[in-house]
Amino acid sequence: MTEKTVQTIADLARLAGVSKSTVSRALSDSPLIGEETKERIRALAREHDFQINASASRLSLKESRTIAFVSHPYYQKKGFGVADLFMLEILGGISTGLAKSHYDLLMAYVDPSDTEWPARYLKTGRADGFILMTSTRKQHHIKALVEMKAPFIIWGTPPANQCFCSVTGDNFGGGKLAAEHLLRSGRRKIAFLGGPAEELEVQKRFEGFQSAHLEAGLTLDPALVTYGWFSNESGTERTRTLLEQHPEIDAIFANSDFMAIAALRVAQEMGRRIPDDLAVIGYDNLTIAEDSDPPLTTVSQNIPLAGKLLAQNLIQYLQTGVVTNVSIPAELEIRKSA
Amino acid sequence: MTEKTVQTIADLARLAGVSKSTVSRALSDSPLIGEETKERIRALAREHDFQINASASRLSLKESRTIAFVSHPYYQKKGFGVADLFMLEILGGISTGLAKSHYDLLMAYVDPSDTEWPARYLKTGRADGFILMTSTRKQHHIKALVEMKAPFIIWGTPPANQCFCSVTGDNFGGGKLAAEHLLRSGRRKIAFLGGPAEELEVQKRFEGFQSAHLEAGLTLDPALVTYGWFSNESGTERTRTLLEQHPEIDAIFANSDFMAIAALRVAQEMGRRIPDDLAVIGYDNLTIAEDSDPPLTTVSQNIPLAGKLLAQNLIQYLQTGVVTNVSIPAELEIRKSA
DNA sequence: CTGAAAGCGCTTACAG
DNA sequence: CTGAAAGCGCTTACAG
Q1: What would the pLDDT profile of B2-56 be if each residue is shown by its tens digit?
Q2: Cα(B160)–Cα(B169) distance, integer angstroms
């Protein structure tokens, strides 16, 4: 017979010669319990590797102390791109933020066309709130969440008339930083190689880009402003068109590292030397940005911090109802391409 | 006053005019309940959007119906690479596999030097089992898991003397496929650009590579076999050395797409035309393999399937104690580089 | 500061 | 086939 392990607070109470109530209070650090008693019980718990049962605690508390990270299944997806790498990195930050408040991180892969999932997670008590990244049919899901008053936070810029928590990168600042750097190095024919024009993030980056020009007393040539997807292919195609139609371009500000790296390649094929003939700046500072040829100068966001804030601000909202909308700063990671 | 919602099985029981026991049994599809009764209760549950409380159910069942995916925090990591993209893709598969059995997926970010985490998750009843990918100090964690008899499954090849569940890619088959393809196209001076020599995966790929040569009646030139890291940098450096010392090389089989893409670039810089002068094959079939120049021929593994099997086989182990070790097939994704 | 007792919402052995 | 009752392991209002 191995020594009977201490499984419940009742076992611990017996050992300590106190009641279950006292053990429970001691372990949750209640002010009702004397410091000596607490310490004695804690020592006993440590000694016997005691861990409180989460299901029982959650049932009693009526809280799951769990946050669901909402993502989509990859049924028809072929591969993984920017958004995915980004998501992975932010997940780490989220987990750090949640751990601080002893919350668990649940992965919720939901069908993009489903709107019942918030109810399913909330009513079963499997999650207390949700974190949403950019996703297919995002507005659609946000609407469902708002309607059922589900607690959630999003990565991205919330529409002006909405009231829910968000964390976003400083896209205006990022666009501005990029343009300022290029202008400072004497570039005057700078192309804006944007992501989808309808995305708020992209619009903000453009505004920052524009603002840097205005402050320098320069006006933008609208012909050098173009939009596409964040992908490699889109970057390739847009860059080619841009350089063919406007050979005078001396710099490109791309809205993603993938686009920027594509631009690098196309430009070099077309005989431009980087950065002498053409400077290129990307966005996101993914790993691939270090390995490009030449290494990519790019706008960097503190993604772990973003994750941590997503976690902490959602928990704060759960506990106090305070709605926060925060923006994290952008920095320029200067390498060789600009 | 809004209509009072149905929160518990007691509410539902009242509505249906039966006992809680009956409702509970009906919802869990117990054979004890008549089909008509079941259907009536289910209809009522649907109508009122009733969802069973997970904490209560788990407390009663003494199961969390939750699997923890074990990963490490990214404190000092700068960026994300192969392993990460791979992990993200497999996570999707795992979630699919778990969903089928109504298990939840929890992210467990644990300190690589900690060995207490399995106890923490198990004793609190937050997880019933663990999924481990390649990780820092993997053997160390496996040892801890085995010692405390924690249920788990790993991605990778288990050491021969161990008895626990695993899912792995067919690395032997992958190496063989690559070599066969190169030999078939007439290559005779094929370099093996390996990952770390001590990794079982790498050893298996080499064995497959070798086996294809032997079957073709050819012997390997040991000078063309080299090991490094899976990274871009390592690929660059090894390829350069290889091509400088052995200009006769007419093909390279790289152990990762990152290495292969680096090889592509270096070889082209050194004046080789791909695939005419030099054929290159990678491993993993990541997104970046499609976008390389030229597009990369690479060994592809069915990652979503791998994830699904990790989930299903772990659950099977939990429920039946059956230990499975499965290997998923490798395929060659032929593009332009070989 | 501490304890006895009720309650959180399920599941299931037992009795019918 | 159905129900009353005990039990899962916590938390906390209430009483002292």
Answers
A1: 346 788 998 888 888 888 899 999 998 888 888 888 888 888 888 898 999 999 9
A2: 16
The encoded tokens of residue B150 equal: 């924690």
A245: left (phi over 0), alpha (psi -120 to 50) or beta: alpha
Q: What is the pTM of this model?
A: 0.88
CA–CA distance, B100 with B98 (Å, rounded to integer):
5
Pairing of strands B129-132, B152-155: parallel
| φ, ψ of residue B108 in degrees (nearest 5) | -115, 105
Strands A325-328 and A165-169: parallel
pLDDT digits (tens, 9 = 90+) for B243-302: 999 999 999 999 998 899 889 988 988 999 989 999 999 998 877 788 788 899 999 998
Strand C nucleotides where any atom sits below 7 Å of a protein CB: 1-5, 7-13
CB contact under 8 A, B88 and A89: no
DSSP assignment letter at B142: H
Q: In angstroms, rounded to a whole number, what is the distance separating the alpha carbons of residues B165 and B132?
A: 11
Judge if the beta carbon of A247 is closer than 7 A to nucleic acid strand C.
no
Contact B109 A125 (CB under 8 A): no
Q: Is the C-alpha dihedral spanning B90, B92, B98, B103 positive or negative?
A: positive
CA of A53 to C1' of D7 (A): 15
CATH 3.40.50.2300, chain B: domain bounds: 66-169+304-329, 171-301
Q: Domain A66-169+304-329 adopts which CATH fold?
A: Rossmann fold (3.40.50)
Interface contact flag, A107 B109, Cβ < 8 Å:
no
CA dihedral A265, A267, A273, A278 (to 10 degrees): -120
Residue-level pLDDT, tens digit, chain A, 338 residues: 334 678 899 888 888 888 889 999 999 888 888 888 888 888 888 889 899 999 999 999 999 999 999 988 764 444 455 567 778 888 989 999 999 999 999 999 998 888 889 999 999 999 999 999 876 667 888 888 998 899 999 998 877 777 899 999 999 999 999 999 999 999 999 999 999 998 888 999 999 999 999 999 999 999 999 999 887 778 888 999 999 999 999 999 999 988 998 899 889 889 999 899 999 999 988 777 887 888 999 999 988 899 999 999 999 999 999 999 999 999 999 999 98
| Sign of the torsion angle spanned by Cα atoms A264, A267, A273, A277 | negative
Taking each continuous run of H as one helix and of E as one strand, the counts in chain A are: 13, 12
CB B202 within 8 A of CB B255: yes
| Superfamily grouping for domain A171-301 | Response regulator (3.40.50.2300)
Helix/strand/coil percent split, chain B, to 5 = 45, 15, 40
CA distance B256 to B271: 23
Q: What span, in angstroms and rounded, lies between the C-alpha atoms of B218 and B186?
A: 12
**Angle subtended at Cα B94 by Cα B93 and Cα B98, rounded to the nearest 5 degrees:** 120
Cis preceding-peptide flag for B151 (omega within 30 of 0): no
The contacts of residue A214 (CB under 8 Å, 6+ apart) are none
Q: How far apart are CA A150 and CA A163, in angstroms?
A: 12
Contacts of A117 in chain B (CB under 8 A): none
Alpha helices in chain A (DSSP H): 9-16, 20-27, 35-47, 54-61, 82-100, 117-123, 138-147, 171-184, 200-215, 232-245, 257-269, 288-291, 303-320
